[in-house]
Amino acid sequence: MTFPCALIAPESPHGLWFRQIKYLILNFSEALPVRLPKFLDNFLTRNRGLVIAGFAVPASFVYRHVEGIRKRIRRRLRNTGIEHDNAVRVIQAQVQACAATGKFMCTARKPWQTMSVRSAEFKKDMQQVSINLCEILEVDEKRLIVRAEPMVTMGDITAFLVPKGFALSVQAEMDDLTVGGLCMGIGIATTSHREGCLFESVEAFEIVTASGELVRATRNQNADLFHALPCSHGTLGFLVSVELRIVPVRSHVKLDYEPFHSIDAFCARLEELAASPDAPRFIEGLVFSRESGVILAGDCATPPRGARINRINDYYKPWFYSHVAQCLKTGAASEYIPARHYFHRHTPSVYFQLKDLIPFANTPWYRHLWAWMGAPKVSLLKLTVTREIRRRAFENRVVQDIMVPIGSLAESVRLSDGLFDIYPLWVDPVRLFDHGANEGFLRNPANNGSSQMYVNLGIYGIPTKAKAGNYDQVPTMRRLEKFVRERGGYQMLYADICMTRTEFEHMFEHRLYRDVRSKYAAGNAFPEVYDKVIPESWLIDLRDSSP
């Protein structure tokens, strides 16, 4: 649709408002500092649930279907390999041109299109490189490898692989998470107790370096770069393709639910299951209170005739975590879940966050009348975030994942209870491996073994104290971060951090990372990870926190 802009007087208040709204929608990363008309700012802030339900949900429905049709047409008409090579050459030319300016580089992807909570204000003064690589390039069923471009999503992956009888060996849950984001960060899933982080399943990276050179990195070729890329968040080069291990799957997952009314018993059983030589393929836990939780353990299976099959993501069904919570009352249970439903079981509720964004979204009337359009895309949720909403979210909302040795889980749950009183919590065991001299951002295990079991604790929601108006986010988060550092743990960097640079370098190992930055001349082309992941300066200024 074309709007008759000429009918709006350029200097009229309506004309100014129109241009600001258009600017907000099309250039949101730059729009955050713009002061919106007061009535619009107030409306978006006070009616967040209605805005999300009325705009983000329908817009997400349209976007998903249009994007799906576009991708199917492209895959039928294009020669994927040749077009990929041409696109990479264009990226190389852009990088070479940007390098001549002497300024830092970043992707031209708009901040609202990413899964990070931040607005990426650091991009404003950088040279932006256009990278539109969102195709699955090939599947090698003999080698059990899929080769994909960085903007391929987990939804794309499961839609393509599951009908063929395959899935990633570490298959992350949320539809909109991208291959590139997970490989350059810390991607985990319910197979991570066996397989480790998603980057452990990578067989090869291809990146364009600061000089515009295309470099392939494997465990045997450019091994230092291969091990430095995970958790580097695009600060060593631009990822253009990745090869990932895949594994056979069946049509369904048989999932067993085991409830607990003691957090110590819950943690002991989780540690026992994760460390078992014949551990289930899938393990996760949901903690519903200081002393109650449910462990979910599953394996791929073909359901026998008459078995209980639950299509958990059908739009009229209660959210998965509320379905799991019933086991605390009814006892242990088992059921078969279609594979794609299982892999994306937390998407309809955006893990546990949609209950705070649309408080009525899990009610029967909403599910039957509105939820058929699906959950709002995280990117479109960010599109509706004003500067005031971002400030309030930073000060009063928790979206954090921390990873600590599994023996510290009970202590972590109790600390979270005291700091935030947010439930449910997501629990996922993660095996970290020893990489010897190629020790990356995540340090080699402290137990001097080949691997060590950690556990991820996901904390998402509004603290009870924030609802009462007596919550102070920064000191509270700093206490959580100190706890994680002292136990040799890690914080996921899609979330806000409140660490100084010195504290950040205490949490993460920088030796190999800095060696590789020097080797590939990345220091003059890309900011360091810390400078990309700290919150916006108008929220909290950490930029002068030098070692």
Give a description of the structure.
The protein is an alpha+beta fold. It is 37% helix and 19% strand. It contains 23 helices and 16 strands.
Summarize the structure.
The chain is α+β, with helices and mostly antiparallel strands and about 550 residues long. The chain is built from 23 helices and 16 strands.
Write the layout of secondary structure elements.
Layout: H1 13-26, H2 28-31, H3 38-46, H4 48-77, H5 80-99, E1 105-107, E2 127-129, E3 136-140, E4 145-148, H6 154-161, E5 166-168, H7 179-183, H8 192-195, E6 202-208, E7 214-217, H9 223-228, E8 238-248, E9 252-260, H10 263-275, E10 282-289, E11 292-301, H11 320-325, H12 327-330, E12 333-338, H13 339-343, H14 354-357, H15 364-369, H16 378-383, H17 387-396, E13 398-405, H18 409-419, E14 425-433, E15 451-461, H19 464-468, H20 473-486, E16 490-491, H21 501-507, H22 511-519, H23 529-533
Parallel strand pairs: 1-2
Antiparallel strand pairs: 3-4, 4-8, 5-8, 6-7, 6-8, 9-11, 9-12, 10-11, 10-14, 13-15, 13-16, 14-15
How many β-strand runs? Answer: 16
Helix content: 25-40%
The percentage of residues in β strands lies in: 15-25%
Rg, Å, rounded = 23 Å
Tally of DSSP helical segments: 23
Could you tell me the mean pLDDT?
88
